[in-house]
Each structure stands twice: as structure tokens, then as C-alpha cells.
Amino acid sequence: MLPPRPDAIHRPIDVPPALLTERIGSWSGPALLEGGAGLGEAGRWSILAARPRRVIESPDGLGFRWHGGSLDLESEGDALDGLATIARRYGLADPTKSPEPGSPPFLGGLIGHLGYDLAPRLERLPRRAPADSRLPGLRFGLYDTFVLVDHLRDSGELWAVDLLGDGPDALRERWDRWRADLDDPAPPRAGSALSSPRPDRSRDDYLAAVRKVLGYIEAGDIYQANLSHRFVATGRVDPLDLYLRLRSSSPAPFASFLAWDDLAIVGASPELFYDCRGDRIATRPIKGTRPRSTDPAEDARLAAELSGSPKDRAELTMIVDLERNDLGRVCEFGTVRVTEPGAVESFEQVHHLVATIEGRLTPGVGPMDVVRAVFPGGSITGAPKIRAMEVIDELETNRRSVYTGAVGYLSLGGQSAFNIAIRTMLVEGNRVSYQVGGGIVADSDPELEYAETLHKARGMSRVLDECRGKP
Fold first, then answer.
1. Catalytic site residue 287?
2. What is the pLDDT of residues 308-350, one digit of tens each?
3. Active site residue 271
4. Of 415, 454, 419, which is closest to residue 273 (Cα–Cα)?
5. How far is residue 157's CA from residue 155's CA, in Å, rounded to a whole number?
6. Whole-model pTM?
7. Which of 22, 100, 123, 271 is catalytic?
8. CB of 179 closer than 8 Å to CB of 72
9. Residues 6+ apart with CB under 8 A from 290
10. Which of 216, 308, 334, 426 lies deepest, with the highest CB count within 10 Å?
11. What superfamily does domain 8-182+192-466 belong to in CATH?
């Protein structure tokens, strides 16, 4: 992959990738960001980390704690400012550092999540529904030991990086300890036994909310809003068991598993929020969905129908324009361009319409400047973004927590990337929840919009059904 560095050890290992996921996922503080074979360049790499040295976390973005080892600091300041300070301290996601040719995406740094409910810290937005999740609004671990899997070459490397200045002896000892631990089998999983997922609102209530969105659109108040609803199951939960099942049944280029205490984020996201390589940034919003079919002819017909749909094309175009404007806030004038206006990409349960927008960051712009400019992603809010989020707050029955937030990393080498946290389950003790939604536009049919949300939920509901009543 890369030549040796004095502050890092990285060597090939011969443990099969599937075993690596299971073993590292069972360790303390796992942070798995996974692609997979057959998912193209977007899913080429998996990052398998655990045992964070330090953690920054904030309940709602105002005030944070930075702790680990003998360090335990608390601040009443803005958590994104704190995250920016930590990134600068360790040289993470530095846009002046261009990644070396052939460099893997992650070379050590922060891995974690940004909850959708940070949005009111970035814009003047209401918060009608009370908080009903224990998940922090922001949480990142500092990871200096990890495995990188290159699915294109079907190979893995174990990395140890000296982020904290421990010195070469400690670096080698850490690498050796991980290498020995990787040969130990993962402990038996407890398994999950869950109730059937139940919606937070009835079908009729959801249809009525869609009609209210259509009323706002007809009045010229908004052009589009992404409306979602939540499903909840309860029972005995093994988060890693859920993740392995979801990853198997719904392969995705931006899968994620983050776990600590009795909380976990279990995701199979198909959507890239943004990717930075040095001063180059790209975002790939998704709008438009059709279910997959087991019949090849019908499946091809559904993909062609999506590709040729004026309604879905218009829905995506609105979000492309929004994302261009968002990127324009942090990119040099004239560098933002649409490199792919809309291509059909097919996943296990659905076809999606996906666009690509790219730009070059203005000198001096850092990773948290990017987050403040573009978060949350326009594909899961609507247009215009602020008014659409006000409508979401009015019509959804709960706060979104991690749903439609972002999961990703800030790395050495000038690199950072986040997914959009869709197709994502949240584990809180004996409770598992997930949300699904869709973009409502002027010619939306409420019944079809409701059906689309169920298509998107298929992979997650299948996993929970597999766990129903099982030991």
C-alpha cells in the first residue's frame, strides 16, 4: 500500500475480512466503516478500528467532554469548535495536505457521528419534540490502531500510528498486541430476540402529514421536504449480531458500526454525505427510489422507470441546486460543478438516482467549516433547506437523533468522509429504532410515498424479523 513511515507500522495480515469484522467488532469501542466486494470504488475500503485512546462527546452540541486515559477535560463551549481544535492538534483532515497517490482513506484519527439534532446549533431552528434518545449529539473516538481492508485486492493491513507521541517502543508493542489478539476467535454472540417493529404513527397519520407538506408546496412555502417516520422494536439486543445480519442482507458502500456502553449505531447507508481529499470535496445526494425485483426483466424495467421519471429527476435537480449553493459557501468561486446529474445505482433492496457535485475548498477552510456549511445534507431535509427543516420539526413526531445525521472520519493525510445516516438502526439498551422517509414534491402521491418508505425499510425490518423470538 504505502512505504513505511517512522511514526507508523503497517503490515499485511492474513485473517479473512469476515473474521476481522466479527473480532474487532467485539472489542471495546468498535468503530467499523465498511464497504465490500462488488460495491465499486465507493465500497473499496473497510476501516476496522476499536479501543479508542480518547473520546470527545457532547449531548447536544453545546458543551463537551474530551477524555481518555488520565485525560478528562470538560468545556461549556461549542462542541464543533472543540472538534475543530482537536483536529488541528493532531493534523487531521488538513486541506493543505494532499493525499499521496494510492493512499488508503484512513491513516489514523477521529471516527464518530454527528446527529441530525445538531442542526439548531448551526441555524435558528425550532425544537418542538423533546429529546427521547440517550445517544450523544456528537461523539468521536481517537483511533491510532486499526485494520484496513482493500476489497479490490482482497487484502488487509494492520496499522499502528503514533498519534499521541508514545514513541517507537510503545508503537511496536501496540501493533504486536493487536496482531496477537486478531488470532483469538471472537467471543460467542449473545444473539438478539426482538419484538416486531412498530411504527410511531399510523399509516393514515403519515398520509395526512404528507398532505400537509403538499399544502405548503402549493402555497409556495417550500419546494420539497423529506418526511420520515420511526419504527421501534424491543427485547434482547446484541448490536454486533444486528450489524452482521444487516451487512449480510443489505450490502452498502458506507456501512457503519459504532458501539459503546449499551448504545450502538448500526448502519448500511448507500449515501455519501461528503468526501474530502486535500482541498477537493465531493458530495453525492440520492433522490428517487424504486424497489428491486427478483425477476430480472421487471428489475430492469423498474430501473429504467426511475431513470426516465420526470418527477424523480426534478426532485434530484432541486437538491443538486441546494448542494451546489452549500458547497459554494466553502469552495473557491467557479470550482463547484455537477459532474454527474443523475445516474441509477442499484442496491440490495432498491434502485436510487444519484448525482455528484464537486468543488475545491477555499484556502483556510477547515473540516468543521465544511460541516457548518453543508450539514445536514440537503437530500434528507428539502428545499429551501431552513424552511424545510422547520416543516420537518412541525410534522414529525420525534427528534431524529442520528437518523439523517452523518457517520465518518477525520484522518491524517488531509482526508475526511461522512455518510448520510440512513438505513441506520439505533440501539439503546433493549430498544432498537430506525426511521425511513422520502422527499415530498408537488406531484407526490401520498400512498406511493408511504410505500417508498417501506421499501427503504425492507433491509432493516428483515433483520429484526429474523431476530423475532430467536435466542
1. yes
2. 989 889 889 999 999 999 999 999 999 999 999 999 988 888 8
3. yes
4. 419
5. 7
6. 0.95
7. 271
8. no
9. 302, 303, 305, 306, 350, 351, 455
10. 426
11. Anthranilate synthase (3.60.120.10)
